[in-house]
Specification:
Length: 956
């Protein structure tokens, strides 16, 4: 009746669970939860002090990755992770945990600033509007967040502490002997006392203030330096390596990115490379993410070797010092600071034409080549398949093991960001060097005996030969011989000889580079740094924090033609002279003095490097976080030696950005004694993506997915056939489905169930609006098992359930409990559905004990209907804090299982046997079964294979 005549159905069943009823229930309970503070997590200070019962509970800190509030709002793909953490948090509350679960907003970002540039509207206005819209959308989903703890990174009382953390990093250095960060004042004391010598000699007291600042800048964990950066004229800002795409364009805006040399703030994350690597072993993270971080950090062991040139040295790092005798030329990165120094005015006699690039002088060749290299990304420069390019700089270095003069080139396949920015080229053992040597007619010396039959005449080779298993040849010189040794032994011998000879040393190198921390933007945290008349940087005292953004007339950094690589940044803050030029008393005893503020701002990653700590103690204006509160929620404990958040859910795309940066900040704060947790996130889970079909017309333009019709397996839009592919969901692809539209049609609980039931949480899955109704029907059947649709009265009875229902119930309890604990929400829903269907099939009133357990089972997944039914069942307390059901083991074990009996691989009988039956007894039962006896027909039995209790295989 309901499908053919909805109006009649509504009259016949006025208390049916419909979308209208769902909306009323959901809005009412959301208001109730807010008023009652149902999800408020008590802290150890104050809250728990007067509540010994709560204080005795184990804790769970569950977090989502910081969302960025988009002006476009959410589509149904966005809440996947938020719903998952909410289900997990609700389950943990019901299993006796004190749960902290909340959500803030990562609100400094380029989209809001770009909107401000286009419209003149302050980015705070659009950002706060987007936050409010997102809060409303998320609230409608019934997410159980502790709203007292929410904040946005743009709140001055939040970024006060972001600035404070920057100052802790600025005022710190890494002590390699102690293997930790220490206050910079302790380093100054070492210089003052003479305990630590200055690298250039002299005494600390003889240095000027500017000279002392330069010395300390070589040690500080946050420092400014002139260094090659990724300059994006189209955005008017520099970018971190991680913000540049593989094809050398900006991640945001898709503008070309060039190499330029600018003075920028950096974080010395490289000081923590070993600890960042080693501590991964103690984290419960997906192996794929650990591998990405290990590869990004890129630890490699080798040696640094000095190649003499004109009375100085070019230092290289090599993982294969055993191949030094095969080094026939050197290559410097185009950005290397020694290129200009060793580039003479004229080509030396005998320079080959192929080396000069057709230029009249070495300087002309180098200048032209640098311009060419600046337009390429690091990925493009290192591409294996590309033609090798370069130019001779006009100078020769000396190979220290054999005294041979070898030419020095600049080439873009060598990067300043790895090793020393210089390589010794061994073309016999490295394919890129081999190709370069062939292109530039350079010698190739065989130094590893080939094991593939090619011989040692390199003129006949088609590619390089590298091996760790072959023997070293052609490698004897003054004082050292490697001939006949294996690679490992040869490496050890040559490294020891280099150190003894004073021309090298064994060392460890990392691919990881220091973190570029400056942005030429307005919408970001201002640096709490001012410069005096000598250009010396001074930190602002804590009493002057937060340093807030001033008003400006123009929010945009000056942008340029995207392809104009010769431009340089001009920031919005630099144009506000009243804010930039100030007179301050920094409390250093020098009184009021004129200063100039730093006009760059911090990157958007800054606020998300420590936000987990603010959730703990969000209204503390005196400290970053109360130590007792931090230890309670994040401190080390059994199984979590470095502490951290118990469950952190988010996308895998942040593997080497946010996650690496946050780990670095945590370790600095830990070293300085501000926190007890050396790692921010103990357990990481990467959720998959909700995808949607994209429909495109003959021009390749996306058409609205909602307007596409399917006919005979083909798809049409306004009569025209269109193509269909599975892809991302988004406004630009015209396939976005809003959460509101699903909530209106079915309710938030249905949306929650559907998203959790679509498949394993860590797997991407396609959205299908037509399939949502399946979960809506589950809720309708659940409702009917408790409520009479005609009268609205509760129909459960206070009688004991039958044996079958008890077994169905306790199996469901056992399975759902395990599945929710393991984040297997799809299978948990399947088990709830199976139990609900069993009760529907049995018919008649449902036993109260079974109905209440069923409501508790679904409560983490569909909290609104669970809360409503729990109250209808006569309970005064919220379902949120009820105990999750516990299965009775006696009912979980099957009374009987089906055993398959096969003869020569074909099923001949099925037996109902006890799950505890022994193999001997099962064999006896099988061989005595009538069907088995008939099938054997007296044939002799060669072998009986028994796998109790489910299989007997008879071989005749």
């Amino acid at each position: 009746m309901s499908e053919t005549n909805p109006a009649a159905a509504e009259v016949a069943a006025p208390h049916r669970y419909t979308a209208v009823v769902a909306a009323e229930i959901e809005a009412r309970w959301q208001d109730f939860w807010d008023v009652e503070g149902t999800y408020a997590a008590p802290n150890p200070k104050g809250d728990l002090a007067g509540d010994p019962e709560s204080a005795a509970k184990p804790k769970k800190f569950i977090m989502d990755m910081f969302p960025y509030p988009s002006g476009a709002g959410l589509h149904v793909g966005h809440p996947l992770g938020y719903i998952a953490t909410d289900v997990s948090a609700r389950f943990q509350r019901m299993t006796g945990h004190n749960v902290l679960h909340t959500l803030g907003f990562d609100a400094f970002g380029l989209p809001a600033e770009q909107h401000a540039v286009q419209t003149g509207e302050h980015p705070r206005i659009t950002t706060e509007a987007a936050i409010n819209n997102m809060k409303s959308q998320l609230r409608r989903l019934g997410l159980g967040h502790d709203r007292r703890r929410s904040f946005a990174t743009i709140d001055p009382d939040y970024y006060k502490w972001t600035q404070w953390i920057f100052l802790q990093i600025f005022n710190s250095w890494y002590d390699d002997e102690a293997n930790k960060a220490r206050p910079i004042a302790e380093l100054v004391a070492q210089f003052e006392s003479g305990e630590r010598a200055l690298s250039g000699g002299g005494s600390w007291s003889a240095l000027s203030a500017a000279e002392r600042a330069d010395v300390l800048g070589e040690y500080r964990l946050a420092y400014a330096s002139d260094a090659p950066v990724n300059w994006c004229p189209g955005l008017g800002t520099v970018l971190a390596n991680e913000e540049v795409t593989a094809d050398g364009r900006s991640e945001r805006g898709n503008f070309p990115v060039f190499k330029a040399k600018l003075r920028q703030w950096n974080m010395r994350i490289t000081a923590y490379a070993d600890r960042l690597l080693d501590d991964l072993n103690e984290l419960d993270w997906p192996e794929a993410i650990k591998l990405q971080q290990r590869n990004w950090i890129g630890r490699s062991e080798g040696a640094r070797v000095d190649f003499p040139i004109d009375g100085e040295n070019i230092t290289v790092f090599t993982t294969r010092p055993d191949t030094l005798f095969g080094a026939t030329y050197m290559v410097l990165a185009p950005e290397h600071p020694l290129v200009d120094k060793f580039t003479p005015d004229a080509w030396p006699e005998g320079t080959r034409d192929v080396w000069t690039g057709g230029h009249a002088t070495p300087a002309d060749a180098v200048t032209a080549y640098r311009a060419q290299a600046a337009s390429k990304s690091d990925v493009e420069r290192q591409a294996e398949a590309k033609d090798k390019t370069g130019v001779f700089i006009g100078s020769y270095a000396t190979n220290p093991v054999n005294g041979e003069k070898i030419p020095v080139f600049v080439a873009d396949y060598v990067l300043m960001g790895y090793g020393t920015g210089a390589i010794m080229a061994v073309p016999a053992g490295d394919q890129r060097d081999f190709e370069f040597a062939r292109a530039f007619e350079l010698p190739i010396t065989c130094i590893v005996e080939p094991t593939d039959g090619r011989g040692t005449d390199t003129s006949t080779w088609e590619d390089a030969f590298g091996s760790y298993d072959a023997k070293i040849i052609n490698s004897s010189g003054d004082g050292v011989s490697l001939d006949g040794l294996g690679v490992v032994e040869a490496k050890a011998r040559i490294t020891e000889w280099l150190a003894r000879s004073g021309i090298g040393r064994g060392t460890v190198n990392f691919r990881l580079r220091d973190w570029l921390f400056s942005r030429q933007r307005y919408w970001g945290e201002p640096f709490p740094i001012v410069y005096d008349e000598d250009g010396v940087a001074h930190p602002l005292p804590e009493s002057m924090l937060p340093l807030e953004l001033p008003e400006v007339e123009d929010y945009s950094p000056r942008t340029f033609e995207p392809d104009d690589a010769d431009t340089r940044p001009e920031t919005p803050l630099s144009r506000n002279a009243d804010w930039v030029d100030v007179t301050l008393d920094l409390g250093d005893g020098r009184g009021p003095r004129p200063y100039r503020r730093e006009t760059n701002t911090m990157p958007n990653w800054a606020g998300s490097c420590w936000y987990e700590l603010r959730y703990l103690d969000p209204h503390n204006s005196e400290k970053l976080v109360d130590p007792e509160i931090e230890r309670y929620w994040m401190g080390p404990r059994e199984g979590q030696p470095h502490g951290g958040v118990d469950l952190y859910v988010g996308g895998a795309e942040h593997a080497v950005l946010h996650l690496l940066y946050a780990r670095f900040w945590s370790k600095v704060l830990f070293d300085l004694g501000h926190v007890s947790s050396a790692e921010p996130f103990h357990r990481l889970f990467n959720q998959g993506m909700i995808q949607a079909f994209v429909y495109r017309d003959s021009r390749g333009f996306a058409v609205p997915a909602a307007e596409v019709e399917e006919r005979d397996g083909a798809f049409f839009h306004e009569g025209e056939k269109v193509s269909r592919v599975l892809g991302k969901m988004g406004k630009s692809l015209k396939n976005a489905v809003t959460p509101e539209s699903i909530c209106v049609e079915y309710g938030a609980d249905t949306l929650r169930l559907y998203e959790m039931a679509m498949g394993p949480l860590d797997v991407s899955r396609p959205w299908d609006t037509r399939a949502v109704v399946g979960q809506f029907r589950l809720l309708q059947r659940l409702w009917r098992n408790v409520v009479d649709e005609a009268t609205g009265e509760v129909t459960v009875v206070d009688t004991e359930p039958g044996e079958d229902s008890l077994r169905a119930l306790h199996k469901a309890i056992d399975g759902v409990r395990q599945d929710l604990g393991g984040l297997r929400f799809n299978t948990a829903i399947a088990k709830v559905t199976e139990l609900n269907n069993h009760l529907t099939k049995v018919g008649g009133p449902v036993s109260r004990s079974v109905a209440e357990a069923l409501v508790l089972l679904i409560a983490p997944l569909a909290p609104h209907i669970a809360e409503e039914l729990w109250r209808k069942l006569g309970h005064a307390d919220s379902v949120v804090h009820q105990d999750f059901p516990v299965a009775d083991p006696a009912y979980v074990v099957d009374e009987a299982v089906t055993c398959v009996v096969q003869i020569k691989g074909k099923v001949k009988a099925r037996l109902e046997v006890s799950p505890a039956i022994s193999e001997e007894e099962l064999e006896k039962v099988a061989l005595g079964d009538e069907k088995v006896v008939a099938a054997l027909a007296g044939a002799p039995i060669r072998k009986v294979i028994v796998r109790a209790p489910k299989l007997v295989n008879i071989v005749t």
